Amino acid sequence: MLEFEFLYKLFYVFCRVASIIMILPIFSSQYINNKTKIAIAILLSLSIYPVLNIQQISNNINYIDYLILLIQEILFGIFIGLTIKINILAVQTAGLIIAYQAGLSSALLFDPSSGGQKSVIADLLLIILMLLILLTDTHLLYIKLISNTYEIFPSYNYLTLEDMSISLTQIIAKSFYISLQMSLPYILIGLILNIVAGIMSRLMPTMQVFFILMPLQILVILVLMGLLVSVTMSGFIDSHQDYLVNFK
What we know:
Structural class: mainly alpha
Strand content: under 5%
Number of helices: 7
Shape: elongated
Number of strands: 2
Distance between the termini: 36 Å
Low-confidence stretches: none
Largest sheet: 2 strands, antiparallel
């Protein structure tokens, strides 16, 4: 009977851990097959389980109550994974804004990690970010956060739809604010170039302003990226680590 109770509790922990793993950056990549993701979730569940005190599950628990608890843990995991994913998407949004300022918004590449299409600059920034996550051991903070979620969101706690929607709205707003901060220099340069182009078109109506502006705009934005990308991405990874450490 004790073995069944152990399995009940382990699977209860596994539901939350697996839900987070399936959404987290690095771990959620399509480069990692589902069997590997499940194996990682099982190993993390086995390492977390001994330090948890799960009192609401026993051999006498009703199957309906147990199913409700499992659904609650899955929702907890999806919510936690989404909040971290949205924070990461600030880089992709910044890349889209920069690509628009450079006139490369229509230059899309297939991204095998997500199965969709991204702009060239957004894809480049995401690749840099993934490398920084591994180089700075931020992926270890993800694992630590999974364990800490049981202190932040205890198993006996309930999250209402209102609480989740308010939290997600705040996180989306913060993510968009970060993306604007990252892309602000490029927005200003793009604005200046367009103002100069407008003045030139008025002074010399016969000049092909668009023909001159387009390559110049791409060149200036790419040079600016080369100068600022290291500072921008280092600042973001520091901000992301603070977000993970102070996650509430």
